[in-house]
């Protein structure tokens, strides 16, 4: 019988079908090593790529990976001295990767508005853009992206300190499907800007305005009502203008809220937190409220007993919290799902309270008790506390903290 060559038998479409069945990236790379034909098909079908390359190399990549959907050119913080991607690179990207939907340029210090204008003009299919800590960017370039990439669903601008409310107006006007927006450290963002944003973008489920010091109750309340059906994650770290009005608005409208960061919002008190616990009892998973100095046992007890799906809680530096916060756990009919608890600098909590917690919580993975004078490793050993086998207890600060509450 004459031998049969697979390349003479199978069409390109049939080979693509075979390639699509390979789930492992390594297997896909091996597919391309068979011959030049298979390499060409594998290259054209590749969807994701992470690289560091200048304009010449990017042109070659664009020719080879013509159907690329995700491109990651971000830099690590440790390489922050290096400019990374530049405006000339973005011209090549905008012209060569027309199918691109996801672009990550985080920490690329060489990018300016000129490069962003190229992206807006060339990548009409773009759905996700991360330009966090690209510190030269202003409203002009980012508004051009909003106007040109109107299918945008995710935008991260953390650390872009020149961004103002004008960008939020452009997003509201052009990007009605926006779902995720990161504005951490964008200090010029105000309540008026947030109101403009949600007048057109009502599907936002993730909003990070950590350290946006001009955001207060008015803006948060407007966002809560406009995005009530979608909002799941809201980050308000160190937004000192945020108080009880914001939390009561979230409790009233955002019944599906899963993550709330309000650390450093010192005017928040028990009244609003109790309302939140009642309204979001089924949805709330992560709550950070360190340095909320007006919080007492009554509201935290409500959170622990009513929010049955709670997985992470930070009440660090809430100095009035005592062991009594754990008293209500004994009446609970089911085990807690809590995985992360941070109570650093809570001087009135003792090993007795931790014992009450452990009686109802076998899922604990991380416990932060730094600067709690009545909770020491030796003290826990003396009373015979039994932590779950996989639980890390941070007594002195030597352990890496989980990032779930950042």
Provide a quick synopsis of the model.
The chain contains 16 helices and 14 strands. It is an alpha/beta fold.
Report what the structure shows:
By secondary structure, the protein is α/β, with parallel strands linked by helices. Among the domains are: 45 residues, Monooxygenase; 96 residues. It contains 16 helices and 14 strands. Strands 1-2-3-4-5-6-7-8-9-10-11-12-13-14 form a 14-stranded parallel β-sheet, with no helix packed on it. β5, α9 and β6 form a beta-alpha-beta unit. α2 packs across α4 and α10 runs parallel beside α11.
Question: If you average the pLDDT, what whole number results?
Answer: 92
* Biggest beta-sheet profile: 14 strands, parallel
Order of helices and strands: HHHHEHEHEHEHEHEHEHEHEHEHEEHEHE
Number of strands: 14
Uncertain stretches of 5 or more adjacent residues: none
What is the CA-based Rg, rounded? 25 Å
Q: Write out the strand line-up for the largest beta sheet, numbering strands in chain order.
A: 1-2-3-4-5-6-7-8-9-10-11-12-13-14
Structural class: alpha/beta
Helical content stands at: 25-40%
Inertia-based shape:
globular
SS element count, helices: 16
The rounded distance between the terminal residues' Cα atoms is 67 Å
């Amino acid at each position: 019988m004459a031998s049969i060559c697979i390349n003479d038998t199978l069409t390109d479409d049939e080979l693509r079908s075979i390639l699509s069945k390979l789930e492992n990236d390594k297997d896909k790379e091996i597919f391309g090593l068979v011959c030049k034909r298979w390499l060409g098909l594998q290259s054209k079908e590749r969807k994701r790529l992470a690289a560091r390359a200048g304009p010449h190399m990017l042109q070659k990549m664009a020719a080879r990976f013509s159907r690329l959907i995700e491109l990651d050119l971000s830099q690590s913080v440790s390489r922050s001295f290096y400019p990374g991607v530049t405006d000339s690179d973005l011209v090549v990207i905008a012209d060569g990767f027309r199918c691109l939907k996801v672009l990550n340029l985080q920490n690329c210090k060489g990018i300016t508005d000129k490069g962003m204008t190229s992206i807006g003009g060339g990548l009409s299919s773009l759905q996700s853009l991360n330009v966090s800590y690209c510190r030269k960017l202003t409203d002009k370039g980012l508004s051009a992206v909003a106007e040109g990439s109107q299918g945008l669903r995710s935008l991260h601008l953390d650390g872009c300190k020149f961004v103002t409310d004008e960008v939020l107006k452009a997003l509201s006007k052009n990007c009605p499907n926006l779902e995720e927006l990161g504005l951490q450290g964008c200090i010029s963002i105000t309540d008026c800007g947030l109101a403009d944003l949600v007048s057109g973008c009502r599907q936002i489920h993730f909003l990070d305005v950590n350290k946006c010091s001009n955001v207060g109750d008015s803006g948060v309340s407007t966002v809560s009502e406009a995005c009530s059906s979608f909002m799941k994650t809201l980050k308000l770290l160190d937004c000192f203008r945020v108080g009880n009005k914001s939390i009561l608005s979230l409790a009233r409208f955002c019944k599906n809220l899963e993550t709330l960061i309000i650390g450093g919002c010192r005017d928040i008190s028990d009244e609003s937190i109790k309302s939140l616990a009642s309204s979001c009892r089924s949805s709330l998973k992560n709550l950070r409220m360190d340095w909320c100095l007006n919080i007492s046992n009554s509201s935290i007890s409500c959170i622990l007993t009513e929010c049955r799906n709670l997985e992470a809680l930070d009440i660090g530096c809430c100095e009035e919290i005592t062991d009594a916060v754990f008293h209500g756990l004994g009446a609970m009919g089911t085990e807690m799902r809590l995985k992360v608890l941070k109570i650093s600098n809570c001087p009135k909590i003792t090993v007795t309270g931790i014992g009450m917690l452990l009686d109802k919580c076998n899922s604990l993975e991380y416990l932060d008790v730094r600067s709690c004078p009545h909770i020491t490793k030796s003290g826990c050993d003396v009373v015979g506390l039994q932590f779950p086998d996989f639980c890390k207890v941070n007594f002195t600060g030597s352990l890496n903290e989980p990032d779930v509450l950042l």
